[in-house]
Each structure stands twice: as structure tokens, then as C-alpha cells.
Amino acid sequence: MHAGRIAAAVLLPPLGVYLARGQGRDFLIACGLTVLGFVPGVVFALWTVVRDARQDAGQREPAPA
Question: Which residues have C-beta within 8 Å of that of residue 4, sequence separation ≥ 6?
Fold first, then answer.
């Protein structure tokens, strides 16, 4: 399922973020970045989808010290 989200993030960045996180702040950021430039939208979407996938897998990022 994560491969589909990653593919969506590359082809249509807001769709990839929507599938991973739903409609919210991250989705609006992805829309704005995609309007400003396709590449920034893709980078943000991939970062969001991969971060969300890591959290789903239980691989929590270490807490800041």
C-alpha cells in the first residue's frame, strides 16, 4: 500500500499526501508547493509519505534531546 502512496506522491503530490495523512495542514502545504513549483511539491509529498510510513511501521524517530 505504501508503494501506491509513493507513486501518487511523485505523480500528483497533493494526492499522495491526502492518501497518507488526509485533508489537513500537510495537504494544504502540498497544494501550495505544487502550485509554486512541481519539484518542491514532490519533495514535500515524498517526505510526508515516507515519514508517515515509518511511523505506521513502528519505527519512531528518536525524541530530541
Answer: 19
Give per-residue pLDDT as tens, 9-59. Answer: 899 999 999 998 899 999 999 999 999 999 999 999 999 988 877 776 666
Q: What's the CA angle centered on 38, arms 36 and 25, to 5 degrees? A: 65
Question: Cell 501518487 sits at which residue?
Answer: 8
CA angle 39, 29, 19 (to 5 degrees): 85
CB 42 within 8 A of CB 10: yes
User: Is the separation of the CB atoms in 10 and 46 below 8 Å?
Assistant: yes
